[in-house]
Amino acid sequence: MPGPGPHLMYTMASGLALTTLTSGRFSPHHTLIYTINAFFGPDIGSFSEWLGSILGSSLQLLGSSLADYIHDPFYYILILGLPLCVLYTWVSKILLQRKLLDSVSGLPLSRRQCFLLVSAGSLSHFFLDHLFEENGHSSVYTWILSTGWWKNRAPVNPDAVFVVGFLCICLIGGFIYLNRSLYVEPYMLILM
């Protein structure tokens, strides 16, 4: 299954394409929220399961049950859609006030827009996951998709977690930096 890198690159590239095709109506705000939900959204349960396996067995059980419900294209939207859209609306307002990202209209994203971006991110995440899945006939399909294939304690490789986390932070940070600097035509970002 694809790791965080392919999810980030796929959604940022499609967000850049939508920005170009819609003449800026699909803004960096839209792309950032879409990307976060496609990358980390449905895997929150898997991450909490992994974190719980490090911190203790009772937390691993909580993380495992959370992973079962959250790592689903529709349950993620139904369970976390409303709380996340409220959070993202607030974050969008802060990003505009601190001038970290620009908006064509000068307004933060609405709750409705954020809810639709949460939904689009979830569906994009599973679209990419299904490209690497074995036609849905694998008995360990759910475990592989959620990266929770371990039986006892999760294999912890702190170096890999650090490197992947650092690269993802650099990718998102670079995206914010490019979009808050002088206005550049979206297709020019590909040439940089």
From TrEMBL:
Residues passing through the membrane, by range: 74-92, 160-178
Keywords: Membrane, Transmembrane, Transmembrane helix
PANTHER family (UniProt xref): OS04G0465800 PROTEIN
Protein name: Uncharacterized protein
Protein species of origin: Populus deltoides (Eastern poplar)
